[in-house]
Amino acid sequence: MQNKRVLVVGLGKSGIAAARFLLERGAVVTACDAKDFSEQIPGVKIQTGAAQWDGLEQQELIVISPGVPVQTPELERARGLGIPVIGEVELASRYLLGKALAITGSNGKTTTTTLVGKILADAGLTTQVGGNIGTPVMELVATSTPETWNVLEISSFQLETAVEFHPQIAVILNITPDHLDRHGSFEQYVREKEKIFARQDANDFLVLNADDKNTQMAAGKTKSQVFWFSGARPQVKRGAFVHQNVIVFVPQEGAAMEPVLPLVEIPLKGAHNVENVLAAVCAARLAGVSAESIRESVKSFEAVEHRLQFVAAVRGVDYYNDSKATNVDATMKAVASFAGGIHLILGGKDKDSDYTLLADLLRERVKVVYTIGSAAEKIGRELAGVTKIVEAETLANAVRSAAEAAQPGEIVLLAPACASFDQFENYGHRGRVFMECVKGLEVQ
After folding, report:
1. pLDDT number for residue 94
2. Is residue 209 annotated as part of the catalytic site, yes or no?
3. For this structure, is 183 an active site residue?
């Protein structure tokens, strides 16, 4: 990188981490963003707004943040000029020491990544966790060693620019329609997810969901050793599944089942979280952690913030924050975690989603839907007649209306099925606002 001219596009967490990393290695770094950026990064030239792409032709490498679409005209022009365009994860992976255990999927990534990181660390393995979960992979490079397990949550946005990224253990939890506004089609979205195993070979492991048809198809496309997890099948050839209400692991086809833990010891709500634990069990066993150690780690695991997180009980009504449910499939899983009596808050920024897929589940379990954000009109149109719909406009209004309508024993659930960027900085900001609104009810 010495004296190499590099443009970093996007000045979020990963972009700033990439700029600093490149600067430390002697690169001549320019960083740009469409939005204003007041912070100074010593040694880095900052370009924003109309000047964002100035000097593009003089760059020798472009590193983009996950939020930057690869199809922008400027990046297309750069590729036409022969300038390589890669992502922060791709750049970091070329310097990261140790082994990578990478987890992707439409839903469940953060919970599974956090759980796997805990299992490996509890077992005494040198472990660090990052990626889409919050800590840029670039920031893990300095603390990585040849003995480190780097447990990474990886999104389709990060996989778009993957070239040499090579996890020794890769996990695909599920693939359902998401981010179609970014990727253009479901088929392209699937192709991006499958890049997680593109560089794997026969010495590596790929963990797949045997209950997800889109994930199953990856088995015929990889050179790595495939292990399965299933919450529905009586057995898989090798991997993790449920036998007589106990999670078991089979290390090889024909081998005896290893009991890991009873389902009743899983502290998380919902069948989808059983799948997440199954995937984590499979990945952790492949990393060499014993069944006994895995059991103790799972038993003491707490729900991740903004993922079916219990907030409070107010006047007999339970409030749950699942702000991370940013697509229809995630919302379906959240709703399915409760028997009924649900007051559901839906809406935000639409991602070209089909909300009619929610209809049957809403008829069965949801008393009222409260719509918010820019997708509210579309949601109301596609779910008309399914259940009662209240146009709340804002999250604060939705919480207030739900609190007035809900009876003791019922549930108020934030599971929006949409992105947050119309009214909030991100899903975490949306979740925190929801929790603040609920806390406000407690003092009334």
Report:
1. 96
2. no
3. no
Q: Which residues pair with 246 in a beta bridge?
A: 243, 262
Query: Which residue's entry shows tokens 């820019």?
Result: 374
- Domain shared by 104 and 236, yes or no: yes
DSSP 374-427: TTHHHHHHHTTTTSEEEEEESHHHHHHHHHHHPPTT-EEEE--SSBSTTTSSSH
Query: Integer distance in angstroms from the first to the last C-alpha of the chain?
Result: 59
Residue 315 has which token pair?
Answer: 């006047």
pLDDT at 180: 72
Residue ending a domain, among 278, 299, 320, is 299
Active site residue 107: no
Residue among 45, 51, 54, 90 at smallest CA distance from 70? 90
Single out the catalytic residue among 99, 166, 179, 193: 179
Report the alpha-carbon distance of residue 181 to residue 292 in Å, rounded.
Answer: 44
**Final residue belonging to a domain, choices 254, 275, 299:** 299
Stretches where the chain sits below pLDDT 50 are none
In a domain, 62, yes or no: yes
Report in angstroms the alpha-carbon separations of 73 from 57, 69, 298, 313: 13, 10, 46, 50
Half-sphere exposure of 281 (CA within 13 A, CB side): 35
Q: Do residue 134 and residue 256 come from a single domain?
A: yes
Number of domains the chain contains: 3
Quote the radius of gyration of the chain (alpha carbons, Å).
Answer: 22
Q: Is residue 304 part of a domain?
A: no
Say if residue 35 is in the same domain as residue 96. Answer: no
The pLDDT of residue 443: 67
The per-residue DSSP string of 228-297 comes to: EEESSSS--SSEEEEETTEEEEESSTTPPPEEEEEGGG--S-SHHHHHHHHHHHHHHHHTT--HHHHHHH
What are the backbone angles phi and psi of residue 437, rounded to the nearest 5°? -65, -40
- Which position among 107, 132, 174, 209 bears the catalytic label? 132
As given in the structure block, the two tokens for residue 365 are 């379990």
Does residue 294 sit in the same domain as residue 321? no
Domain presence at residue 65: yes
Q: What is the CATH number of the domain that holds 415?
A: 3.90.190.20
The whole-number pLDDT of residue 417 equals 97
**Out of 99, 109, 118, 272, which one is annotated catalytic?**
109
Its domain, for residue 313, covers: 309-442
36 is a domain residue: yes
Give the separation between CA 201 and CA 44, rounded to whole angstroms: 38
Q: Are 105 and 170 in contact (CB under 8 A)?
A: no
CATH number of 34's domain: 3.40.50.720
